[in-house]
Amino acid sequence: MTNVIEVSNISKQFKIHHERHKSLKERLLHPKSGTTELFSALVDIDFTISDNETVGIVGQNGSGKSTLLKCICGVLQPTTGEIRVRGSLAALLELGAGFQHELSGRDNVYLYGAMLGFSRKMIDNIFDDIVSFSVLEKFIDTQVKFYSSGMYVRLAFAVAVNVDPDILVVDEVLAVGDESFQAKCLDRIARFQDEGRSILLVTHQADQVRAVCDRALVLDGGHLIADGPVQESLRIFREHLLDDAIEHDLAGVQSNVSIGAITTPSGSFDVRSGAGMHFDVEINSEGPYSGNFVLEFFTRGGLLVSRSDAQGSPVNLHPGRNSVGVDLAQIPLLDGIYDVNVGIVDTHGNTVIAWKEQGATIQVIYDGREGGIVEMGASIQQQ
Amino acid sequence: MSSATPAGVPRRPIEDAPVRVLSARPNLLTRLKNLANRRELLTSLITSDIRIKYKSSVLGIFWSMLAPAMTLGIYFLVFSVFLKNGIPNFFIYLFSGLVVWNLFQTAINTATGVIVDRASLVKKVSFPREILALANVGASVVYFFIQLGVLALVLLLVGHAPAWNYMWILPVSFASLYFFTASVAMVTSALNVYLRDIKHLMEVMLMLWFYLTPIVYSYENTISLKLHRHGIALLYFLNPVTLIVLTFQRVFYVATSVTSTVAPHPILSILPTWSVSHFLFLNLALLAIMVVLFLVSLTIFGRLEGNFESEL
User: Fold this and answer.
1) Which residues face A229 on adjacent strands?
2) Starting from the edge strand earliest in sequence, which strands make up the sheet with B19-23, in order?
3) A305-314 pLDDT tens trace
4) Which residues have C-beta within 8 Å of that of residue A11, sequence separation ≥ 6?
5) Contacts of A192 in chain B (CB under 8 A)
6) Are A240 and A79 in contact (CB under 8 A)?
7) Structure ipTM
8) Domain extent listing, chain B
């Protein structure tokens, strides 16, 4: 285990100008006008990432994720503190930001490679891989100003992942591009993981973190509020979203809705595949509230198996203790342990009112021959 | 790690990888080291700069010669033919000063706006930002050498021998020119981020600066005496370009005093009569100052760089 990224106590402040005059004339005419405000985008962030690790950074918009990433990539300088980065780093930040429109794809590959810090010789060695990965063989000598936006992104991505970086930094790019591009992206990430490289993934999609990362950091308002296993961090992330929702709730109706214990009539969470199951969820509410009940099933690997909500038929909570029954007619899951998350969201489905991560863990027992997570009930016969 | 790169070269173990330290204010040594590490980027940027400039033009890089040739022709016409300054072989005198000036002017004019123009890059890709300004200086250096080649060709054609015994001072003089141009380019490009007027201001300043430098007139012949009388000759030499221009003129134009081509053909003193060792001493002193200036400018750039992202 070697630390590849060491972030020690970094803070970043931005100056925000209100009505700033940019030209000399305006400055001379209004010497005092325009106020400057300091905004702390990051406050005392401290963590390390070692090789072989895939770390997700989650947080709401404006929580400082991208600022932190830009500091690690060296695009921004931290105001205080220090970051040590071991080895080469390729960032899929803004794909193609370094491209020169007037130059051909070929020239841009070299220029972009040089920007990422790779020598001409190294690019020579992998040039063919880059081109074949980008599927732009026909257009590589065309000026990139004639490229479509998709070709543009493909070429930039091909450079970034083929330059053999020790650390790969990915920022929300998985959200862009068509499905095959996304698949290619995820495929590369998986290969990098297998090769023991470090990956830093920034997203606000919890599912993506669950699917890819070993560890997650949670940022909130520039503070690092969690650093640990994905499940644990995401729980904290969700709770914070919750706190924020409560803070922003002026009417105060939904304050203090909380989810209590999840119980089954038999007391056991073991179930046979294909059998039904019933469990009761205890919900405590201080006031009357009407919202939707959300139920999620996850594999231990972090894959979302199912998410369902009682859309259209809200649960009406009355003050005090409520009980919501969940009936699962038939569980088609195969052998394994599944985590159950339950929550209450508002009727529009936008705001989480109460959430319980890993409220229950069910164990499914399956003695058939299918593999995977879902029983398809396939029967195979030769016609 | 057992994995291999696509090229089949085994990956370097991560323990051996170099460590980069990113902190609030990298010190001068770190800055220089970062610059040295990114030489390749500098050459890439210079070549792409030149390529982009002449990519879609038929005459290509030939254009980089045409504008200076035009300037040379016009000045020759105005000062030698119309105003009859009486300097023989005036175009050689002009040319040797203009190659120096063209480098300085082209570099400053292109570099001052470069960080603002390439804001998207500055905000998204990590590299020492001063490289953008230095790349423009580098492109001007390329044009400089092309022009120097043309000057040599012209000398050969007209059979005008340069002062060989002064020739070896040129590299020192050129180094001063490079460091001075790079220093000004870095500072103006950074200042322009905060105050967009700098670009326009520099264009006007350069016009004035041009006439403060003895290129279209001879320092010795016109203003030297007057400056000395008022005791402000030193002031004139505060302009670093002056000494560099004088050195180039001494090497290529050679003659320190000539017979005027205009009747009644008086003797004109054109260039300072300094000896080789005096020229060398002055140039070495200038180089030392310029290297210090370069380091200072790099530090200033580093200070200004910290807030680029909130200004762009």
Assistant:
1) A215
2) A35-50, A3-18, A80-86, B19-23
3) 888 876 667 8
4) A40, A42, A43, A44, A45, A78, A79, A80, A81
5) none
6) no
7) 0.73
8) 38-311
What global pTM score does this model have? 0.77
Instruction: Please indicate whether residue B82 or residue B58 has the higher confidence score (pLDDT).
Output: B82
| pLDDT greater than 50 at residue B109 | yes
Sort strands A198-203 and A215-220 into parallel, antiparallel or unpaired: unpaired
For B162, half-sphere exposure in the C-beta direction (CA atoms, 13 angstrom radius) is 24
CB A98 within 8 Å of CB A110 = no
- Only one residue has tokens 């006007």, namely B204
From B309, which residue of chain A is nearest by alpha-carbon distance?
Answer: A76
Could you report the per-residue pLDDT of A315-369, keeping only the tens digit for each? 888 888 888 888 888 888 888 888 888 888 877 766 777 888 788 888 888 887 7
Instruction: Give the residue from B28, B50, B241 showing the smallest Cα distance to B141.
Output: B50
* B9, closest residue in chain A (CA to CA): A125
Residues in chain A with CB shorter than 8 Å from the CB of B132 are none
Whether residue A271 sits in one domain with residue A123: no
Q: Are residues A222 and A328 part of one domain?
A: no
8 Å CB contact between B1 and A196: yes
Q: Which residue in the set A22, A93, A195 is minimally distant from B124, CB to CB?
A: A93
Given an 8 Å threshold on Cβ–Cβ distance, is A110 in contact with B44? Answer: yes
Question: What's the whole-number average pLDDT of chain A?
Answer: 81
Q: How many domains does chain A have?
A: 2
Phi, psi at B239, each rounded to 5°:
-75, 110
Could you tell me which chain A residue has the CA closest to the CA of B25?
Answer: A77
Contact A115 B40 (CB under 8 A): no
A215-220/A54-59 β-pairing: parallel
CA distance A360 to chain B (A): 39
pLDDT at A212 over 50: yes
| Pair A224, A269 in one domain | no
Token look-up 């016409």 returns B77
pLDDT for A77 beyond 80: yes
Q: Which domain holds residue A338?
A: 252-365
Supply the pLDDT for residue A243.
66
